[in-house]
Design goal:
Chain lengths: 182, 410
């Protein structure tokens, strides 16, 4: 409960800050000061690239059937995916097809591994460029939230900050084990 | 001697070609492009297509395809000017199709000829989200079009459609989407369960920006962004089927008591709202049409197998419409079965029983005294027409799209 109260306080503070400040202005300047790069806004959404997983992704070899098949909508990591699977489009579950560029920001889902029973945080980065792949269209919505809660919304075209917003497909990268919120 | 003769032949052919290409008489419809009547038909419908990058106008009474407008990349949501003469279409284009310089515009089209009258360039930040709902909105006085941006920082691009100019960008931190909420006011939904109200000044700049009270629980039971407007009241429906009304008629928006689309018994049976465009309102009768399915938590976007008709004033379900299996309709269309033949009817029944029912993703209801309910799926694209009062299936519109993305009344 203590951690929930703290979480609530952080959330309330963050939202108050978000409401009362210009996020792009403030964080842009902060970003420029800290990193010397204000070109892209720093926002509280996932950034898979450059972040080492907190715990290695579980071994899929123990899985049988669709739950272990990265080209299936029922693959365990796809519990909140909305789009064409990169693994059906020339890429893999963790890398984009040739000629496309992985989105820098994205939405986050939490999927339970069917064998070890742990919840893992999954980053669903979009692959951008070269138009729609059109294969293996999946739409699963565990934990999906509306567009006004962008970090958890799979309805959004996350090809942002990329050379083009033309959507191609989506990957599902394990970021680490989810920490219980209470 | 031979050269002049050749020249003569060339001149004769050229003259004949010019004669063929010459405009026909104005009252002769041959050789001309058609125009639509000034008044849209009562059962006309825009059907967006994400793959064809267009939105098409169809007549649900005849199934006729009436015309289309191009929409560039992304989701296509036309707005009609208050006098009915123009259509405003926010669109995104890349110079090389899927790459090169990006240009976002609001295109202004003539509502009868469907030709482009002009365009206003807006910042290249327009949001793309799957449902299209609340991606842009025309102010209630018809003067300003607001386009929702997400980079992912959120803001509104304001276009003065009367003067054909970009009026400016208004930041909406922590909030998203856009709904018309007064003559010069827009509403956005916020991640903390409040609403943001942006009021414009005479030039389309920001006159005020205020937060309403928290009116829904964004963590436990958020409202879907797929809201519908009934008169001056927006009906925001939560994942669990609670309606949160917001009356935007006065200077101060009023947040009504929430009410439930379902009773306890229906909840126990697992009925839920779901779909990409799951709600429609028939204004005159005060009825809300909701796409419903049976499913568990996190099925808020699952297609519906039934439409429930609810009296908005009484908060009471008055009708239940079982939707036809759209997959069976698609197969019937592909094999070219005549809709009225006895054998085809038998085949239709057999297919509806044999094929799994994927459900319907989008609905719309026309606003006339004899309304029709329109029910669409994306892949494969189907569009079924029902009598909105009796629930009787009337017909299927053939080939409405390749990938249906949104329905809108003209």
């Amino acid at each position: 409960m203590a951690s929930r109260s703290f979480d609530d306080w952080i959330e309330a503070t963050a939202r108050r800050l978000a409401r009362t400040t210009s996020r792009r202005g403030f964080l842009g300047r902060l970003g420029a000061a800290l990193l010397g790069a204000a070109a892209f806004p720093l926002l509280p959404v996932a950034r898979a690239r450059g972040e080492a997983p907190r715990e290695p992704a579980p071994d899929d070899a123990a899985l049988t059937g669709a739950a272990g098949d990265p080209t299936s909508c029922d693959y365990w990591r796809h519990c909140s995916i909305d789009g064409f699977l990169a693994s059906c489009c020339g890429g893999t579950a963790t890398s984009c097809p040739p000629g496309t560029e992985m989105s820098r920001v994205t939405w986050i889902g939490t999927c339970r591994h069917p064998v070890d029973g742990k919840d893992y945080i999954i980053s669903y980065n979009d692959c951008c460029g070269n138009s729609y792949c059109g294969r293996c269209l999946c739409n699963r919505n565990e934990g999906d939230r509306p567009v006004y809660q962008p970090g958890k919304s799979n309805d959004i075209n996350w090809c942002m900050g990329t050379e083009t917003t033309a959507y191609n497909s989506t990957v599902a990268i394990v970021l680490g084990v989810a920490t219980p919120s209470s | 001697m031979r050269l002049p003769r050749r020249l003569l032949v060339f001149a004769l052919v050229a003259a004949a070609s010019v004669a063929l290409a010459a405009p026909a008489r104005a009252d002769d419809p041959r050789w001309q492009s058609l125009s639509l009547p000034a008044e849209p038909g009562p059962h006309w419908l825009w059907v967006g297509d994400e793959l064809l990058h267009r939105t098409a106008l169809v007549d649900a009474d005849t199934g006729a395809f009436l015309g289309q407008v191009p929409g560039g990349r992304g989701i296509i949501a036309p707005s009609r000017s208050r006098d009915g003469r123009e259509i405003y279409l926010p669109s995104t284009y890349y110079a090389r199709g899927t790459r090169g310089e990006r240009t976002d515009v609001v295109t202004i089209l003539d509502a009868t000829s469907l030709r482009t009258l002009g365009e206003v360039v807006i910042p290249p930040k327009r949001s793309e989200h799957t449902s299209w709902v609340a991606g842009s909105a025309l102010s209630d006085d018809g003067r300003f079009l607001a386009v929702f941006n997400q980079t992912p920082a959120s803001s509104l691009s304001i276009v003065d459609v009367a003067e054909r100019r970009f009026a400016g960008e208004i930041e909406t931190p922590g909030c998203g989407l856009v709904y018309a909420a007064g003559p010069r006011r827009f509403l956005s939904l916020c991640a903390d369960g409040t609403a943001l109200f942006v009021t414009l000044d005479e030039r389309g700049g920001e006159a005020s920006k205020t937060h309403g009270a928290r009116f829904f629980d964004a963590a436990a039971d958020p409202v879907t962004e797929k809201a519908v407007r009934h008169g001056d009241t927006w009906l925001f429906v939560s994942f669990d089927g609670f309606v949160h009304p917001v009356d935007v008629s006065g200077p101060e928006p009023r947040f009504g008591e929430r009410w439930s689309l379902l009773d306890e018994a229906q909840r126990k049976e697992g009925w839920r709202i779901g779909g990409m465009q799951p709600f429609a309102v028939h204004g005159a009768s005060g009825r809300l049409y909701a796409l419903m399915h049976q499913g568990g938590v996190d099925t808020h976007k699952d297609p519906g197998t039934e439409v429930w008709v609810v009296d908005v004033a009484q908060h009471k379900r008055v009708q239940r419409i079982a939707l036809r299996n759209p997959l069976a309709s698609f197969v019937m269309e592909q094999i070219g079965a005549a809709p009225d033949g006895i054998a085809a009817r038998g085949l239709g029944v057999a297919l509806r029983l044999a094929l799994p029912n994927p459900g319907v993703e989008r609905i719309a209801v026309t606003q006339d005294a004899e309304p029709v309910l329109l029910a669409a799926t994306s892949f494969p694209a189907t569009l079924a027409v029902y009598d909105a009062r009796s629930g009787k299936h009337l017909r299927d519109v053939k080939e409405p799209a390749i990938a249906t993305m949104m329905l809108a009344l003209p």
